[in-house]
Write a structure and sequence with these properties.
Layout lengths: L7 H12 L5 H7 L12
């Protein structure tokens, strides 16, 4: 299975939504179809 990579602007968007808008990791992972553990590597 090929490792999925994410663009810098996508990572920044997810971090901004979490920190500035207070979105939960769970809601972001569901909306953007990413594993919730992946988001901890974005910051």
């Amino acid at each position: 299975m090929k490792k999925k990579t994410y663009e810098e602007n996508f990572k920044t968007k997810i971090i901004r939504l979490h920190l500035e808008e207070g979105r939960t990791i769970k809601s972001l992972s569901e909306k953007y179809e990413i594993h919730k553990k992946i988001t901890c590597f974005f910051s």
